[in-house]
Please model this.
Amino acid sequence: MSRTVLKVKQGKLQSLTDNPTHYCAGCEHGTLTRLIASAMDELDIRERTVMIDSVGCSVLAYNYLNCDHIVAAHGRAPAVATGLKRVRPELMIFTVQGDGDAASIGLLELIYAAQRGTPITVFLVNNAIYGMTGGQMAPTTLTGQVTTTTPYGRDALLTGTELDASRILSGIEGAAYVKRASLVLTEIEGERGSVYTIRNLLDAKRSVENAFRVQALGGFAFVELLSTCSVNWKLPVLEAKRYVRDHMIKKFPLGLYRDKIGVEKK
Amino acid sequence: MSNQRVYLKGNEAVAYGALEAGLNAYFAYPITPSSEIPETLAKEFGNKKYPEYKFFLQAASELEAINMVLGAASGGARAMTATSSPGFSLKQEGLSYAAGMELPCLIVDICRAGPGLGNLGPEQSDYFQSTKGGGHGNYRLIVLAPASVQEMALFPRIGFDLSFKYRNPALILGDSFIGQLKEDVEFPDFKPPAHEVASWAATGAKGRAPHILNSLELDLQKHYKHIGNIFEKYKRIEENEVLREEYLTEDAETIIVAFGIGARVAKGVVNNQRRKGVKVGLFRPITLWPFPKKQLRKLASEGKRFLDVELNTGQMLEDVKLAVGDGVTVDFLGRWGGLVPTEAEIERKLQKLEVVAA
Model:
């Protein structure tokens, strides 16, 4: 059995500040922040990177990532990124958006940034819920899932089923790279207890790096990252991680949805 | 185009005016009666005469366009978009953010009749939305109101300049009439001033601390201070940047207050009446914000009476009344629904007010 070692740069990352994050216990936003910082260091792009912070749990990322930031209105981050990229093409520009931000109020901005092949990178954190506002139904909420605005479970007849942003973008010619990965550790239960595999996390790390590489090559890159929201799901942290393994991944299958440049083979 | 006379529509003139003012990026969304602005700027994109004009893009919505403007402005670019009233409502979100983030940018609103879809005729009914903030929160836009195609051509220079000087969005508020009107214009030679952006723009944190362009401040005390500072800046704008035209006001007994196309018609009335020996003058606010209240108050203190004429149901009227204070006569003539008041209508009003003999 082969062993994989997660290569994370040793010591302090240049791209991370010393501020403690505000994220709830068990939330994967901090994991993504770390992966992005690690990619910025490894690709040596920190000094020419601008993050567009969006409304939701990622809005305070300007406290954690040591680069220039623009804080956009709810859903508008890809439009702000487009405007900046077109006047400063030398910059590396990325957004971190929630599912409410990118897949609901900002779906138009997301789709058209992709459709134009805008060389930017969009990270969508899919935790199936509006986290920052306190756990309302998101377009990604699973059918039957209880949220504060679907207290009896999401009714597919009334509100439809889960919106799959990766599949929508995979059908758009302008998108160079569309990938769905997971930030969530996967539990493998055995007779004498559980172990957790970081296989998905390794893939997420590679996807984050690839998403920057695709932008550097002039393409639009999109990575959807499955995440938990144990506080708003009202589940203990470990149960929330099981929920992703047992339910969410089935509705949102991980994988490469589009890779026009072939960056994953490089 | 410099120093030669050209025959242009107002919308074309404001587009060329922006290019002459050093426009870097334009983000478009079509709406009648402003669409000649993006059409002109699409046509001129790539013209070597405008080396600073780096980017043109048609957005998928008004919201996308204004947010692209915000992105380009964050990079320190001279960025612009134009629209007309229903679209201007949609711009308010972005303008509120731009004001909170202290971003410079230029917006053109070619006002048509509202509310809702209204019609394509001229109105000045976006006055409140333009001068009182428009979106959520405490802020102001710098608002310029052109009354001719020539002013459409020149106001982008003032708009960009003030916008960068004070790091606040600026607006050119025209109307369907000024936008569609065709006149001879000149573009005197102009070298766009170099605006300092290095101290705040998002250009990559190389050899400096990160720049964070943000309207969010969760610390209430800090936010109180931030907005207080913005309003200190607004006081300086009110002190230094008021523009107005006074036409035969000195000896006038009655002064017509009007802006944009309304002032154009009113000037004709003043000329007609002066020929008959009636002492009527015109006061035209050119900056609708900052509003020329001190100048109006001075005229009021000299015992003059006022007739406010607008293409709406009486919006600037409130600012005129506030400026002149109690005990001063301010009458009103409004035309709305896309109609422009005629000289005859204004003169009939003056007769009714017994300013001129019937």
